[in-house]
Design brief:
The chain has 2 domains: 31 residues, no CATH class; 130 residues, H-NOX domain (Alpha-Beta Complex). The chain is of the alpha+beta class. It is 52% helix and 15% strand. It is built from 7 helices and 4 strands, in the order H-H-H-H-H-E-E-H-E-E-H. Helix 1 packs across helix 2 and helix 4 crosses helix 6. Strands 1-2-4-3 form a 4-stranded antiparallel β-sheet.
Length: 185
């Protein structure tokens, strides 16, 4: 059976930009190997999906090296405590602010957007059970923090995080319906 390719309808929208901006845009288009329209669309989507909320959600820009150093100075108990009682509620607030409700889909979307905006290499696999493969290079405590931040949110919507595997550079996990997760444990 042929797969239907549903492309979103597009519109022509003219804007005036400085010559210097146009030159940078064209140079970046060549680097990214996309045309200028595609790059402009990506920039606008990124802004509308995440960047415009940055100030309101309390987002700050820190380097991975800085965050890795902070996490390495904490013991595992402190990392888990911060993740559960500071980061998880904050992440839930971000989801509510951006999506108006906490659902399985809004959690997934926010995690993917956050990972992308944080420049983590990751792959989301949707093959019946959703799974993430994240190359973080943040040390052995970042996965503890991340997992303890997202798990309470998934549990709230009747899902769980399992089949977890991580090291200092990578994190892999699956997300399953809570009933299925309880049977597998």
């Amino acid at each position: 059976m042929p797969v239907e390719n549903k492309q979103e309808r597009t519109s022509v929208f003219s804007i005036r930009i400085k010559d210097s901006v146009k030159e940078k845009l064209e140079a970046e288009s060549k680097i990214q190997k996309v045309n200028s329209c595609t790059l402009i669309n990506q920039i606008i989507v990124k802004y509308l999906d995440w960047d415009r909320f940055g100030k309101d959600i309390g987002s700050v820009c820190v380097t991975k090296k800085y965050l890795r150093a902070i996490l390495s100075d904490q013991d595992k108990t402190q990392v888990i405590h911060i993740a559960k009682f500071v980061s998880a509620p904050s992440f839930k607030d971000i989801i509510l602010f951006m999506h108006n409700k906490v659902t399985y889909q809004s959690i997934l979307t926010t995690i993917k957007d956050w990972l992308e905006r944080s420049h983590f290499q990751f792959r989301f696999v949707d093959d019946g059970t959703d799974s993430f493969i994240i190359q973080h290079e943040m040390g052995d405590k970042w996965p503890l923090h991340f997992l303890n931040m997202i798990t309470p949110l998934f549990v709230e919507v009747a899902y769980d995080v399992n089949e977890i595997d991580f090291n200092e550079t990578n994190l892999c996990f699956k997300i399953v319906k809570l009933e299925i997760a309880n049977l597998q444990k």
